[in-house]
Amino acid sequence: MSDRLHAVNQDLQILGDAYRLGQIQRDEYRARRRHVLAALRSGGDADTTRKSLPMAQSGPRRTAPLPTTAAATKPAAPPVARKYWLLFGIGVLGLAAVLAWLLKAPEDAPPSAVAPVAARTPLADLEAAASELTARDDWQAATVQAWLIRWQQAEPALRRQALSRPALQHLRDQAAYNLSVRKALATPDSEGDPDGNGTESLERLLRALESAS
Predict the structure, then answer these.
(1) Measured between alpha carbons, how far is 33 from 118 in angstroms, rounded to an integer?
(2) Can you spell out the DSSP letters for 35-99?
(3) pLDDT tens digits for 3-60?
(4) Is the pTM of this model over 0.70?
(5) For the chain, does the N or the C end have fewer beta carbons within 10 angstroms?
């Protein structure tokens, strides 16, 4: 009797282990358990239950590993909406910084960069015309006469003021030098045409400058 009870207990333990490990379903576990208990009450052999579960007869008990899922091992990812809102906030802050820099840039610019260009005065125009005639070194009658017309159109006070400028002084010196050179190179044939070699136009230029002083 004790051997049979020991065998039944072993069969029940094997069934319990198989059920806990998920090797059999609940209905099958209950049916086999009833079969083992019925065999004990009737005095029959309950070894058929033990023979149908060879994987749990011998050796130490093995516990099934706990099921692992991707959700249990992988950290929870932040919601997608939170990522989009974070990126949107960073973009807004960057745009605001750029706009602030663009609005502040003109205030930081040096005054010389935004100062309007001063208009040229009549005196500056006369100086520029004198410097241009001297640089061209063209003492032909037509060129000198064109400059004289411009000179005589200026106000007397402006002409007197212009004579003290280096550009007008240089013009007078160059005109006097060229007049002396042309007179020295004059030939008897040119005496009937005093302006053939440009001497008369240079003399008019020098007289106009002298009369304005």
Answers:
(1) 113
(2) HHHHHHHHT---HHHHHT-GGGSSSS--PPPPP--HHHHSPPPPPHHHHHHHHHHHHHHHHHHHH
(3) 777 888 888 888 888 888 888 898 988 888 888 888 777 765 545 445 454 444 444 4
(4) no
(5) N
